[in-house]
Amino acid sequence: xxxxxxxxxxxxxxxxxxxxxxxxxxxxxxxxxxxxxxxxxxxxxxxxxxxxxxxxxxxxxxxxxxxxxxxxxxxxxxxxxxxxxxxxxxxxxxxxxxxxxxxxxxxxxxxxxxxxxxxxxxxxxxxxxxxxxxxxxxxxxxxxxxxxxxxxxxxxxxxxxxxxxxxxxxxxxxxxxxxxxxxxxxxxxxxxxxxxxxxxxxxxxxxxxxxxx
Length: 213
Hints:
Helix content is 79%, strand content 0%. It is mainly α.
């Protein structure tokens, strides 16, 4: 059996981390967003490292070409789906992102079947960076909200909820939460716009592949 090289191990690690990130988001416990954010950060770092190491050490493989972008999509989309559950992401931006990924992946599969390799363009890289940056920012904001909540209220229950005996603190935290939520929603709409631009650019640059479909 052929030994798995380091870049592919990092890609597999990113996929393995996905369920742990999801669990940390969905299971409410004190500072669960902080834990999820740390795990997501580790997964994102593997994304930056695997490709760089593969190119540097000439370890590019067919598995890596397939699994690396797939791992990115699984990680980002899984987190955003969880965000929708808690009102941290709107359904429309998520649908836009998913639609783009399906469209681009379909073109890549067709091109691959014809022996053509389509490299990621600059907008694709900007899209990926913007998605990661927006998600990390939301994790930071939610962790900051947890810290502010603890400072104002003084106690977090075992299930992650606040012991809201102070009505002034309750309303103040509600306002802060709304502001943080708006910031997150704006960032994700910016990501959705970048995603559309990158998708259109990708399809235009590879229109000859689409015309042969």
